Amino acid sequence: MLVKVVRKASRKTLITKLSPNVTDIIQIAKAAKEAGSDALSLINTIYGMSIDLNKAKPHLASIFGGLSGPAIKPIALYMVYQLAQKVKLPIIGMGGIMNTQDALEFILAGATAIAVGTANFVNPRASMVILDGLRKYLIKHKIKDIRQLIGALKV
């Protein structure tokens, strides 16, 4: 319903970010498309928790919180791949992209674009390093347009 309301209010590009903390992300993606989304963005954090064994208490005051970074990459890749097969919209893939290899995996899985988050805390130039790595990969493999790799995973 929210996507539909926003779509009525604006003709600008509408990107809907999908949470992995759902039962069926494909159903939600299809609903977002039907409501007017121009693209999908996925995934954000996954619920997790950690326990302090000495105090027998959660490390976080809120008990659980968002897990992100490399730990969620396999889940993010899986969800990007699933959606690329079922929903024909551009996909911005994210979740644990730390280097060029990670970025390429998302693109091969079906991401039209990628977003880098946690890696920027480790190296503020991470996005530039990844971009340079993508350029070098394309040159090495004689690929003229990175769009040739989108969804090109061989199964």
Write a structural description.
This protein is α/β, with parallel strands linked by helices and 155 residues long. It has a single domain, classed as Aldolase class I (TIM Barrel, Alpha-Beta Barrel). The protein is built from six helices and eight strands; from the N terminus they run H-E-H-E-E-E-E-E-H-E-H-E-H-H. The strands form three sheets. A four-stranded parallel beta sheet has the order 1-2-7-8, covered by helices on one side. Strands 3-6 form a two-stranded antiparallel sheet. Helix 2 packs across helix 3, helix 3 runs parallel beside helix 4 (100-109) and helix 4 (100-109) packs across helix 6. The chain starts with a helix and ends in a 15-residue tail after the last helix.
- Look at the structure and give the mean pLDDT: 96
Assigned CATH class: Alpha Beta
* Gross geometry: globular
User: Structural class of the secondary elements?
Assistant: alpha/beta
| Count of the domains | 1
Instruction: Tell me the strand percentage band.
Output: 15-25%
The Rg value, from CA coordinates, equals: 17 Å
The total beta strand count reads: 8
Write down the secondary-structure element order. HEHEEEEEHEHEHH
Subunit organisation of the chains: single chain
- CATH topology tier name: TIM Barrel
CATH superfamily: Aldolase class I
Helical content band: 40-55%
- At CATH level 2, the architecture is Alpha-Beta Barrel
**Main sheet strand line-up:** 1-2-7-8
Low confidence ranges: none
- Termini, distance in Å? 36 Å
Helix count equals 6
Mind summarizing the main beta sheet?
4 strands, parallel
